[in-house]
Amino acid sequence: MTEHDQKQESNQKTKRTTIMLVLISGAFAAILNQTLLATALPHIMADLHLEESTAQWLTSIFMLVNGIMIPVTALLIGRFTTRTLFITAMGLFGLGTLICAVAPTFGLLMVGRIVQAAGAGIIMPLMQTILMLIYPVENRGSAMGMFGLVIAFAPAIGPTLSGYLVEQFPWRSLFYVVFPIVVIDIAIAYFLLRNVTERTNPRVDVLSIILSSLGFGGLLYGFSVAGSSPNGWGSTQVIVSMIVGAISLTWFILRQLKLKEPILEFRIFKYKMFTLTTALGMVVFMAMIGAATVLPILMQNMLGFSALESGLALLPGAALMGLMNPITGRLFDKFGARWLAVIGLIIVSVTTFMFSDMTTETTFAYIAAVNAVRMFGVAMVMMPVTTAGLNVLPDKLMPHGTAMNNTMRQVSGAVGTAMMVTVMSNSAIPDQGLEGAVHGVNISFFVVGFIAVVGLVMAFFIKNPQRDARRYG
């Protein structure tokens, strides 16, 4: 390699690293914001005189709008330059954050959350698309590993940071903490971010956007309400939203298959590897999010721990997952996804079944240790299978692949939470008091353990054709 080539390669690496830092900062702010609010809800309820069912909309509406925006991102990536779209998404997110910080009423706070979610819904799939396009196939695992570090680290510190801030300062401080990160990131992106996605100017099909919003929005809302509603799946809200969601989504998919320029390209499921890894990612995400919801309920309502203690029990697992993501990314670049996924799912399956045998005497140390090992397993699966699936897609389909991946993950997170909470409630034995309630939790983990075993079987079918072709060709 000549000196000129070496210099060129060095410049390219520097540019890639700069772009990556800009993107990761944006994603960090978006994910941190999502996890900050849960701990602060009681303070917001007291300050604005809200009922729990009303205040819950501050988190539900964020997830809903996020879920609606993600499928549309592939269309937006085709119509706008990378730089314009990223700065606009961060601008929307920043504007929403500012509205939330100064909102005197619940109505305006909701508006702020909607604007925030509209920006955040674009940021995540856009970021994945850019990373997959600027890195060569052999380095994508490491890049996605760094991305995974942020995805895990922000939720790890979110609840603890939130708990500290709302005890020391007014709840608005949560938004004032996020806002400067957004402003700095927009400024850096303005000067350093270059265009990497190809503009194809696809035609905007308004009916598809409406159907997508009703389809994904209806299903996400139905699942999230089923998990928190006293009537569960029998609630009228749940039944109506699920029916509307299912009909709209079916119509949306059929329409996309007929359009020359679909908003979301469902033909990418013809790539078997992408379909398999997307399904695997959904299984793991379902197991991860469901447990993150059920464990704090178990610890606070049944085992007598405080909110802070339940947050601290999950902290080692989230931190370990964050630290492992860059390592599993490098391992993926060397060995491919199959054995990482197999070993990871064995760990997830075993630790999930360990959570299906708890009692009222279960200790803090047991929950924290088992959860940490479990999250270690999740880290071995999550980013490697995502990267392996996206690697088989041609560059022009990358925006559709990342949008589909993120959409399916949102849906599986809502399904996992609703399923675990429903199984937990239905399997509880009221006559046996706390023991009966813990029994419900055990059954919910048993069900998830079975799903993890199904994922383990699927993991054996992962292949890496490009890598094999290079090695043996």
From TrEMBL:
The subcellular localization recorded is: Cell membrane
Ranges annotated as spanning the membrane: 21-45, 57-78, 85-108, 114-135, 147-167, 173-192, 204-223, 235-254, 274-297, 303-323, 335-355, 367-390, 411-429, 441-462
Record bears the keyword Transport:
yes
Q: Is Disulfide bond given among the entry's keywords?
A: no
Instruction: Describe its membrane topology.
Output: Multi-pass membrane protein
Cross-referenced InterPro entries = EmrB-like, MFS, MFS_dom, MFS_trans_sf
The protein's matches in CDD domains, at most eight in alphabetical order, are given as: MFS_LmrB_MDR_like
Q: Tell me, in one coarse class, where this protein mainly resides.
A: membrane
Per UniProt, residues of the Major facilitator superfamily (MFS) profile domain are 19-467
| Sorted UniProt keywords | Cell membrane, Membrane, Transmembrane, Transmembrane helix, Transport
- NCBIfam families associated with the record: efflux_EmrB
What is this protein called in UniProt? Answer: MDR family MFS transporter
